[in-house]
Amino acid sequence: MKVTKALITLADPNQRSLPLQTLIDQNGRKRSALEVVLEETFSTGIEEVCLIICPNSQESYLNAAGEFANRIQFIEQAEPSGYAQAIKLGKGFTGDHAFLHLVGDHLCVSDSGLSCAKQVVETAERANASVSGVQATRESQISSFGAVGGRLVDRQESVYQIERVIEKPSPTQAELELTVPGLRAGFYLCFFGIHVLKPSIYDILEKTTALPTPEGRSLSTALNLLSQREKLLALEVSGSRYDIGSDYGLLFSQLALSFSGKDRDRVVTGILELLASKPHA
Predict the structure, then answer these.
(1) Average pLDDT of 102-126?
(2) Going from the N-terminus, what domains does the chain have, and what CATH number goes with each?
């Protein structure tokens, strides 16, 4: 299995400005959040990228794409009918091939020599299976993410067989259904915002998006069904993800990029000076 196409979802009209925000990347360059996501995507060897967007936003995203503007395509989601529906719109673009999927409001910082997306793609290509990137997440934060339960199948590579997927579970629900043997107490495996999905996901999305319930709008519902039909793996990614749409998300994303880049010492010094000049009330 070779992954050569990618879908990036940016169709939430309430978050259309997030990818346009300016950040300083690890090399000290001013870039839009979208450029950072696109660089992550193309780092995998992906050849074609399609952005799922809300109406009347293509020009803004083209401008924000910078050096990648001539390498991307667009599909508009005419109505704000949900995340799962946005992915389903990509079927004509990806065809009968496995594809990489990233959410456009998450930024990733790798802790290894491979980008976070590249880690997921390589795992999927080796296993010839759909793979979701995950991160061990504190119980207090899991209500913001889709989460998975399952069993460890490759300790060295931190790969799990997914047996259950729940969107934004409560701590009680997670404890009952998503406990993963070997994971630290109080932590659960939550989605990283990076997936490689085989084309079989589209048949499932056709059914789940027709459900007259909020669950039908969620990718987690489709992934839960996928895990019951075929092999679905989770890779604990060596790195961290940051939701730029959350409270202070853009700030934490910028700090993470700075701390992993050439200006780390300068930024740390500036933060320490700021803290010293602003005593806690």
Answers:
(1) 95
(2) 5-271 (3.90.550.10)
